[in-house]
Amino acid sequence: MAKVTIWPDIYKEQGHWLPCVTLAKTLITVGHTVRFMGIKDCESIVTPYHGSFDVVLSDIYPQGYTFENKLEPRDQRWKPHHLLPITRGALSSVFDGANKPDILVSGFFASLETLLIHYKYQVKFAIITTYLRHPQDDPAILAKTKLIHLPEAVARKLMDAVLPANKKGMSIEEFVEPLNDAKEMIPCPEAFDFTDPDWVHKAQVTYVEPMIERVSLTAEAVTLPDPVTVPAEKKLIYATSGSMVQDYESRARVFFRSLISMMQTQGMDNYFLVIAAGHKLNTQLRGEYGLVPGGTSILPANVALRDWVSQLDVLGNPTTAVAFLHGGLATIKEAMWKEVPIVIVPHGKDQLENARRIARAGVGLVPEVGEPTPEQLRQLLTSATASTWIRQNLAKFRDIFEVDENKPANQKPSVGVINGVLAAP
After folding, report:
1. Residue 320 pairs with which residues in a beta bridge?
2. Where in the chain is the domain with CATH 3.40.50.2000?
3. What radius of gyration, in Å, describes the C-alpha atoms of the chain?
4. What is the pLDDT, as a whole number, of residue 74?
5. Residue by residue, what is the 3-state secondary structure of the chain?
6. pLDDT tens digits, residue range 236-259?
7. Fold of the domain built from segment(s) 235-403
8. Which strands sit side by side in the sheet containing 33-38, from one edge to the other?
9. Are 206 and 187 in contact (CB under 8 A)?
10. Which CATH number fits domain 3-209+407-423: 3.10.180.10, 3.20.20.140, 3.40.140.10, 3.40.50.2000?
């Protein structure tokens, strides 16, 4: 059996990491050895599931980087600071020696980094893409775009540092070619994606099991955040702007404020709202609503603010009536899996297309305005919870999800992809 290293993302994005915990369990079940690698901040995502974790690039991304965002330019999602260190051997502790993995499974957004590792250490790899991308926006295009936007001398230095002597001077187009041939997994049923004629992926792209349910990777019990306690006889409303909330912080703040105001409208006494706002925004909101030492709370009694929750537990709560979401795929899949009606208020990026998918699948509602008022959110809540049609469609997609999610581990599509890459010359 093979040694597998999984690197879901450079940064702490739970929506990209958590599906890979499910993948890890599947691969362990069929006999592979699995380790995660990532920056220190990401270790806490895997720790509750007792996965093995190799901390890398700690001199560049020390613990707390996710919140402090120290490197320049500030607030830019992807930063190139780790690229040259990778070419100089910053990851040799993982990819050299007796414990060298037989295959690297890396996230879509680490495509360029994966390419550098592949050339430097001659490691086989597969890509896992935890969102629904356009077929033309593939891993090779992502890596190429990053190289083109670097200073030409730096891009040249990166490529030549990992290429054999007889290949130095290779063009960017040639350099990214291994990504064009790479096997790629999309953990979502194809039925939820678009079916337009121009939305056809290459043959090496496979829609695999949705990777929703997460269990311990060892015999130890899973240790998740404290469960959400819903007051007796109240229906739960869950709201989140996802793990990348800092990318659209102002929109998320307006979204959460409107939801809190919605809870003060007539008829909401029977509901309880839980908001997972992320650490930074939650801290700001708690200060704004007086939830600080010595402060006077003005937060409605039927609202709870959290940094992070176990979404599957919250969405699986029998009292959960609706989920107000930003539109990230991981949370959408979890809501559909637990058959919770969705109101999607997209903030940006792929969320706009996911809103179209939600409407097309009939599993939720999309407001007609970008920033709905508390009254409009209240109307959407009423419509979503009263819709028999939405409930029927959620049940239909739950059945579709179960086809691959509940297969024995050795029959899951992801195992076929990984074993195919391992068996290739």
Report:
1. 236
2. 3-209+407-423, 235-403
3. 22
4. 75
5. CCEEEEECCCCCCHHHHHHHHHHHHHHHHCCCEEEEEECHHHHHHHHHHCCCEEECCCCCCCCCHHHHCCCCCCCCCCCCCCHHHHHCCCCHHHHCCCCCCCEEEEEHHHHHHHHHHHHHHCCEEEEECCCCCCCCCCHHHHHHHHHHHCCHHHHHHHHHHHCCHHHCCCCHHHHCHHHHCCCEEEECCHHHCCCCCCCCCCCCEEEECCCCCCCCCCCCCCCCCCCCCCCCCCEEEEEECCCCHHHHHHHHHHHHHHHHHHCCCCCCCCEEEEEECCHHHHHHHHHHCCCCCCCCCCCCCCEEEECCCCHHHHHCCCCEEEEEECCCHHHHHHHHHCCCCEEECCCCCCHHHHHHHHHHHCCEECCCCCCCCHHHHHHHHHHHHHCHHHHHHHHHHHHHHHHHHCCCHHHCHHHHHHHHHHHCC
6. 999 999 877 777 788 999 999 999
7. Rossmann fold (3.40.50)
8. 53-55, 33-38, 3-7, 103-107, 124-128, 184-187, 205-208
9. no
10. 3.40.50.2000
Identify the band that residue 68 occupies on the pLDDT scale cut at 50, 70 and 90.
confident
Cβ(207)–Cβ(401) under 8 Å? no
* CA 160 – CA 170 distance, rounded (Å): 8
- Quick one: angle between helices 329-337 and 351-361, nearest 10? 20
> pLDDT value at position 369?
77
84, amino acid identity? L
- Select from 350, 346, 342 the least CA-distant residue to 394: 342
Between the two ends of the chain, the Cα-to-Cα distance in Å is 16
Q: Sign of the CA dihedral 387, 388, 394, 400?
A: negative
Go through the chain and tell me how many residues it has: 425
Please, are residues 319 and 311 in contact by the beta-carbon 8 Å criterion?
no
Give ∠ CA 205-206-212 in degrees, rounded to 5.
Answer: 130
* Residue 6: partners with Cβ closer than 8 Å, 6 or more residues away: 20, 23, 24, 34, 35, 36, 37, 104, 105, 106, 128
Q: At what angle do helices 374-386 and 249-262 cross, to 10 degrees?
A: 70
pLDDT tens column, 24-65: 999 999 999 999 999 999 999 999 999 999 999 999 999 988
